[in-house]
Amino acid sequence: MQEAACMAALQRLQPVSHVAVSGGTHGNEMSGIYLVKHWLREPSALQRDSFSATPFLANPLAIERCVRYVGRDLNRTFTKQFLNSKAAWDEPYEVQRAREINQLYGPKGSAQAFDFLFELHNTTANVGACLIASVQDNLLPMHLCHFIQTHCTLGHYPILLYNLPDQEAYSISSVAKHGLAFELGPQPQGVLRADLLTQMGALVACALDFIDLFNKGTTFPAFETEAYRFIGSVDYPRHPDGELCASVHSKLQDKDFLPLRPGDPIFQTFSGEEILYQGHATIYPVFINEAAYYEKKIAFNKTEKCSLSIPALQRE
Amino acid sequence: MQEAACMAALQRLQPVSHVAVSGGTHGNEMSGIYLVKHWLREPSALQRDSFSATPFLANPLAIERCVRYVGRDLNRTFTKQFLNSKAAWDEPYEVQRAREINQLYGPKGSAQAFDFLFELHNTTANVGACLIASVQDNLLPMHLCHFIQTHCTLGHYPILLYNLPDQEAYSISSVAKHGLAFELGPQPQGVLRADLLTQMGALVACALDFIDLFNKGTTFPAFETEAYRFIGSVDYPRHPDGELCASVHSKLQDKDFLPLRPGDPIFQTFSGEEILYQGHATIYPVFINEAAYYEKKIAFNKTEKCSLSIPALQRE
């Protein structure tokens, strides 16, 4: 009877033939940049029996300058507002580049779009190797996450769901039919660490193996898993003129994905006072003290833990 | 007899009345920037019986943009060539700013120059809390280093001597009569860690205590100590077009100030090969994989360990 229920829930999806792997969506996140540069010279690592993945550098100008972006954050630019905008002489470089990428690997929401697009990111926060999906509804990325969690032995792989309800997906992978981001940290901007480079390469290899198995007809059983769902963010305490007056508390620093309870310290002011978390429920902070988020007024993102029940999957 | 020899070696220096503490010589090294911003609001922490130290932000434009520099590295700009140059409309911002700083806290080499200038720096390398002096001949900084090593309990404080023989000192502290840099890491560019902020604040407090004791006539006995002397640097392996083809080896990463022996691995190529250290003697690498040094073609700096014998010191 239980088996019948599982069988009933089996979902079928089309094979995945067009796969792209993007590095350097942010031009100072070095693991993805140097993996992609390496694969452009030696593409064999991205070949499988049933497909070959296409590597590309998403923001070449930012990579050249080793900055996150030149005009605006490219990875917040893949919304209809920007993708459907007309070229203007004074538009940020990344708006033009987002349209280009949408033409090459999308168009977003269309039948011609690539089947799968991977994003490679680094953060200065201690997230380990985090798997970021927009929402849980997209079965292929969720099964891919589960495959990595059960087959990749180099670390722990928490799943982060970043889209708020009814929010349009804005990241580069949203131009393809399915997408997933690998977010590895801590790594300083502009620094290439061998350990994270190796781990990111192994993650991509594992992901491509999964897609190859899927294409060959493997049935991936239903499963239950935990994920962390983005629910909002917390800014740094500031003076009236906008200047920071506190840093992330040393007891919160590096504690990404660990529970933060009401009353726990979150900041320490430069005068030595502690600021405590005033929320009413336990949350799981992520991207704690990420360098690129100071300007976004984010000291850390808040997530809640949730349980997911994912049906079985097989190709059509 | 031994005591007499020590007494004979006692050196006397003038009291130290004009002291400055510079943060943000590099605009993305956050510990010094936020300590100085805090002290500008609350200067009492820099006051002692015999003097008050003056905090200042060295590169305001780079700090505003959260970049190392705008036009050129400010901390390589305090040489006669730049300080004596005439203002030009197309000169880098930092050349103009170096002249300003030289007017305010120098002029370099003059009797009017400040007595002591501290530089506050961060690095992405795992140097801990490193004390950087130009050369060992300047007694006051060397005694200050020893005082920190024996009185500051938050860490280990290696001394780094950065000037090559006959090389003109080029850093911001060289405009004053005496100078010392505190270099704390690892901390990503653009990130403020509470632990390093606390440690840097304690280092500056300890240094000001030392100067106050010196001014009040305390005799600081002769001592022997170890230091690391800069002897050169090693670039990343590169493809013929200049692109990196390897990262720092995971066995060298984070091993600043530890011995590197001939035959030890230093790089791993993106294709998986190890590159071994070909030198003939044991060295002590520092600034391993520092973000700001990729463009300077430095994967790590080489130092050799040396023993210093420093005579006793008292004020005149």
Structure, described:
The structure is a homodimer of 316-residue chains. Chain A has one domain: Zn peptidases (Aminopeptidase). Chain A is of the alpha/beta class and 316 residues long. The longest helix of chain A has 22 residues. In chain A, the strands form three sheets. In chain A, strands 3-2-4-7-5-6-8-12 form an eight-stranded mixed sheet. Chain A has a three-stranded antiparallel sheet with strand order 9-10-11, with no helix packed on it. In chain A, strands 1-13 form a two-stranded parallel sheet. In chain A, a hairpin with a 4-residue loop joins strand 10 and strand 11. Chain A has seven helices and 13 strands.
- Largest interchain contact: A-B, 38 and 38 residues
Number of domains of chain A: 1
CATH domain class of chain A: Alpha Beta
Computed CA radius of gyration of chain A, to the nearest angstrom: 20 Å
Per CATH, the superfamily of chain A is Zn peptidases
Average pLDDT over all residues of chain A: 95
Please count the helical segments of chain A. 7
Strand order of the largest sheet of chain A: 3-2-4-7-5-6-8-12
Q: What's the CATH topology label of chain A?
A: Aminopeptidase
Strand tally of chain A is 13
Q: Separation of termini of chain A?
A: 24 Å
Oligomeric organization of the protein chains: homodimer
Largest sheet of chain A: 8 strands, mixed
What is the H/E order of chain A? HEEHEHHHEEHEEHEEEEEE
Which structural class matches the secondary elements of chain A?
Answer: alpha/beta
Range of strand content of chain A: 15-25%
Give the name of the CATH architecture of chain A: 3-Layer(aba) Sandwich
